[in-house]
Design goal:
alpha/beta; two-stranded antiparallel ribbon
């Protein structure tokens, strides 16, 4: 009995195809597949590209993240792919990362749009500055975020929603977190084991919007284990960060330095230095739109 490689190798094909065939017929898995499914030399030649794709894919599993599988269906050779465990883990991590970009923000904010912004000279001027910053980001320029502060209900969160949607619509989606809710979820995530992963994802985002900083009850844990790791990393990597708060920078200093158990002005000042490094303070004076 002739070997399969001998039978298939006797076919009259081009020199280039012959070189490809030599590689394919030296592959034990391909030879085994041909024999098990009684595939004729003519059919092998007709579906040479399928076998070659299988051959190449096997050698690039780590880069394509999928395992190639040859199947014989309805008298035809079919190439299918199944995810590697590493690719599946990566895909799930990416899906998780994308989902948490907005999971800590009220859905209403995600409907914000600069075109629907309420009138007011100072708010319009600030919106114009934000659009300019966003355009610079999209153009790849080095920019600094804003620390927008002012009274409750004047539309600071809405403006951040506008920034989020403006950038997302142009293909660059920021992460946006409502900080009091983020703190609550972080405390709960310690039990589920997601805490470190979420902190790492948030601090490494290319663009991060932290909404309503200072509205939560400050504790040493909130300051030192949630805020500090995010702020320090982003400052060291010069990552674009926006903030909103009811508190000025000076008021935030007092807020961050005092916890139930201690007063630590040094830690507070370090955080404020990082915030100033990341964002320019801007006071927004506008009417309360909730009244």
């Amino acid at each position: 009995m002739k070997k399969a490689s001998s039978v298939y190798g006797n076919m009259n094909i081009s020199v280039e195809s012959n070189k490809i065939k030599e590689k394919l017929l030296a592959d034990s898995e391909i030879l085994s597949f041909l024999e098990q499914n009684n595939i004729s030399p003519e059919k092998f030649n007709r579906q040479l590209q399928v076998f070659y794709n299988y051959y190449i894919s096997k050698r690039n599993i780590s880069s394509i993240g999928h395992v190639p599988v040859l199947k014989y269906v309805s008298d035809e050779v079919v190439l299918e792919y199944s995810e590697t465990p590493e690719q599946k883990k990566f895909r799930e991590e990416q899906r998780w990362s994308n989902r948490i970009k907005t999971m800590f923000i009220p859905k209403s904010i995600l409907l914000s749009n600069f075109l629907n912004l309420s009138t007011g000279e100072k708010k319009v001027a600030l919106a114009t500055e934000l659009i300019t910053i966003c355009d610079n980001i999209l153009n790849g320029e080095t920019v600094k975020g804003l620390y927008i502060y002012g009274q409750t209900g004047i539309g600071k969160s809405y403006l951040m929603g506008c920034v989020y949607n403006y950038l997302k619509d142009k293909g660059k989606e920021p992460a946006i977190i409502y900080f009091p809710e983020f703190v609550r979820k972080m405390k709960a995530s310690i039990k589920t084991g997601d805490y470190n992963e979420i902190i790492d994802i948030m601090r490494e985002q290319e663009i991060l919007i932290i909404d309503d900083l200072g509205a939560e009850n400050i504790t040493e844990f909130v300051r030192d284990e949630i805020l500090v790791p995010i702020i320090n990393y982003r400052a060291s990597e010069n990552l674009i960060t926006f903030f909103t708060s009811n508190l000025s920078i000076a008021d935030l200093s007092g807020f961050l330095s005092t916890t139930r158990n201690t007063i630590d002005e040094t830690k507070a000042m370090r955080i404020l230095d990082r915030i100033r490094q990341l964002a320019k303070p801007v006071y927004l004076e506008a009417r309360n739109e909730r009244q």
